[in-house]
Amino acid sequence: MGCLVALWALGRTRQWRAAPYVFIVVVLWFATVTSGVHASLAGMLAGLLIPAYATRRHKVVEARQLFRDFWQSPSAASARAVNRGLAQGISVNERMHEVLRLPTALLIVPIFALANAGVDLRGGVLADSFRSPVTWGVIAGLVLGKLLGIGLATFFAVRLGAGRLPEGVGMGSVFGGAALSGIGFTVSLLIISLAFGSTSELGRLATVGVLVAMVLATLLGWSIFKVAAKLWGEETADLPMLLTPPVDPEVDHIRGPEDAQLTLVEFVDFECPYCAHATGSWEDLRARFGDDLRYVVRQLPHHPHGPIAARASEAASNQGMFWPWLDFVFTRQHALERDDLIGYATDLGLDVDRFVHDLDSDEVRQRVERDLASAEASGAHATPTFFIQGRRLLGSYDARALTAALETSRRGTRTKQIPSSS
What is the model's pTM? Predict the structure, then answer.
């Protein structure tokens, strides 16, 4: 209990160092084992108490300044400051997850499965298993219990308005996933060892049930997905990958030659701290590709001041000032109230009366709504979201990653242009 209270207190104080959490968790594990309580409970409770929070933008900015200090005056002290600043920007939970993910998946879980799933099938154990209510109880719990429990709970939650399914996911996918959850064997084997003892007769019968349930759950899930695809058109639960509609020079905001070899589309929010204009990625890309790249911006306002800032940019666009407005306002993300935006229009030399009129006009609202509809149809649900040559970029979106993706796309384009020797 003392360890759990200490973990809670560390989380409340936003302690960013991982070492105190690791030390307390080790003590918690030994204390739990010594008490006779199963040590898995220590891991579950510790996982809940180690804090997880979204990346804090001001910490990222501070880390950038620390790296700049290191760049200008490299030393051991400044290197330690950079490491400390980077760590403070990411939650302890996320950092520990990154470190433990591969060892857990590649070492710990396989060892656990091999150590707990072995059953000697000689001596008629398999035949005895299929006559045992324990085996069939385990099979029913994993195959039917998971399917009905997860599937029906989700169905009624959606119908009653308690939540909604993610974009691209239908009820067929929910029930298919519910069926596949019967494959999970680690906790099942743990419960068997706690209830019966893994080497006892009942333990062997229950373990056979877990192994049989894995096979049946796989077949049931596969069948449900097939039926859902055929009857309800649920062929994929992934978000759309292609830009819809394609870039239209008559409508879209384009920087660079309209016939450039490469096209980069970014869905932005003027309050987004990680968009290319906020991080400086766009400047790096422009310096790297020059006129080989056309850059297209579409609106996806989802931050508190995003909608009015998006309309303001379109009002500026009506006076031919979209790109100057974009460059100017992205350096002032901290001040996006209505009066601030009107002040920026004055600073940029816009016709302020026309700007204010357009800011609330139906034409401008419809222009922003067009981009919102495009974001939904294209699978963009947050900013920034990038599309390279019309395909959504997955993974990192720093300047280095964007440059690599654009270069790969360019090589692919050149390859397609080479005539076949045949």
Answer: 0.66
